[in-house]
UniProtKB/TrEMBL annotation:
<dbReference type="GO" id="GO:0000215">
    <property type="term" value="F:tRNA 2'-phosphotransferase activity"/>
</dbReference>
<dbReference type="GO" id="GO:0006388">
    <property type="term" value="P:tRNA splicing, via endonucleolytic cleavage and ligation"/>
</dbReference>
<protein>
    <recommendedName>
        <fullName>Probable RNA 2'-phosphotransferase</fullName>
        <ecNumber>2.7.1.-</ecNumber>
    </recommendedName>
</protein>
<dbReference type="InterPro" id="IPR042081">
    <property type="entry name" value="RNA_2'-PTrans_C"/>
</dbReference>
<comment type="function">
    <text>Removes the 2'-phosphate from RNA via an intermediate in which the phosphate is ADP-ribosylated by NAD followed by a presumed transesterification to release the RNA and generate ADP-ribose 1''-2''-cyclic phosphate (APPR&gt;P). May function as an ADP-ribosylase.</text>
</comment>
<dbReference type="Pfam" id="PF01885">
    <property type="entry name" value="PTS_2-RNA"/>
</dbReference>
<keyword id="KW-0520">NAD</keyword>
<dbReference type="GO" id="GO:0003950">
    <property type="term" value="F:NAD+ poly-ADP-ribosyltransferase activity"/>
</dbReference>
<dbReference type="InterPro" id="IPR002745">
    <property type="entry name" value="Ptrans_KptA/Tpt1"/>
</dbReference>
<keyword id="KW-0808">Transferase</keyword>
<dbReference type="InterPro" id="IPR022928">
    <property type="entry name" value="RNA_2'-PTrans_KptA"/>
</dbReference>
<comment type="similarity">
    <text>Belongs to the KptA/TPT1 family.</text>
</comment>
<dbReference type="InterPro" id="IPR042080">
    <property type="entry name" value="RNA_2'-PTrans_N"/>
</dbReference>
Length: 180
């Protein structure tokens, strides 16, 4: 499968497994799962046929591991705007995590901290390089350093998705280090 087709399928999956499942008649279970055969049938019924082999290739080759397949079911690993409980355990984070953003959001972040906005959690990266790539999707990346260890010590909960993204309900501004 060529790269353009892989990208189209990945974007289709993101839209319907994270944000708008009902648009193609999908009903996610409480943890965000849907049977693979139901997804493939719904996609075909709505004019976007995907083969099982294509689906597996997209899931397996996605560098960000955005999707997981288990027991004949598929779900997005994180980033949902629809209500789901990913059933991820609370974990102790590393001392430092990172968040990629762009300059136009810095004033609000300095005042309010990092908020999930339309998603369920704030997404944090385990390394500066990943945060830079995330921030660069919206312009020139600005990487914030998050004092995750201190947050955890003061009672804030962290979870880690299947693809290694750390999730927090909110990051207050006092735990953020801004670039000079």
């Amino acid at each position: 499968m060529d790269e353009r087709r892989m990208i189209r399928i990945s974007k289709y999956l993101a839209r319907h497994l994270r944000h708008d499942p009902q648009r193609i008649g999908l009903t996610l279970d409480e943890h965000g799962w849907v049977p693979v055969d139901v997804l493939l049938r719904a996609a075909a019924d709505h004019g976007f046929a995907i083969t099982a082999a294509e689906l597996w290739q997209v899931v397996e080759s996605n560098d960000k591991r955005r999707y997981a397949i288990e027991d004949g079911r598929i779900r997005a690993s994180q980033g949902h705007s629809v209500p789901v409980d990913l059933d991820l355990p609370v974990l102790e984070p590393p001392e430092v995590l990172y968040h990629g953003t762009v300059g136009r959001f810095l004033a609000a972040i300095k005042e309010e901290g990092l908020r999930p906005m339309s998603r369920h959690h704030v997404h944090l990266s385990p390394d500066r390089e990943t945060a830079t790539r995330v921030g660069a999707r919206r312009g020139v990346a600005v990487v914030l350093v998050v004092a995750a260890g201190a947050m955890h010590a003061e009672g804030h909960e962290f979870r880690r998705s299947a693809n290694g993204v750390w999730l927090a309900a909110h990051v207050p501004p006092g735990y953020l280090r801004f670039p000079s």
